[in-house]
Write a structure and sequence with these properties.
By secondary structure, the protein is of the alpha+beta class. It contains 2 helices and 6 strands, in the order E-H-E-E-E-E-H-E.
Amino acid sequence: MLLMQFSAAGTDFPPIHTWTPEEIRAHIGFMGEVNEKLVADGEWVQGEGLGGPAQAKIVRAGSAGEPVVTEGPFAETKEFLAGWWIVDVDSPERAVEVAAHISTAPGPGGRPLNMPIEVHPVMSAPPQEL
């Protein structure tokens, strides 16, 4: 699983809501091309972009198991999950290659964003004998 984390700390580009329409189209177009190539290579399983912190909620179980919903993460959140891909690749090295390519998504002025992409193995179920 490849996780695109947005971190306000350590970035040198402005928030996406300040980008020009052309810059946003280039960024989204790049993501579409990544997805199309993963499909063509037989490596695509699933992926999505996610809404920002203003659209997210935090849910915990209350004392009787009922959902207790709070707003957040909040606008002052410095990091949030921006999107994810599940890929079926032949090796961990290939997953790292794909993540590095995704990190080059264009931002303002067409410069690569170099956003961090976390690479996590998706675990399988435990053996039946457990």
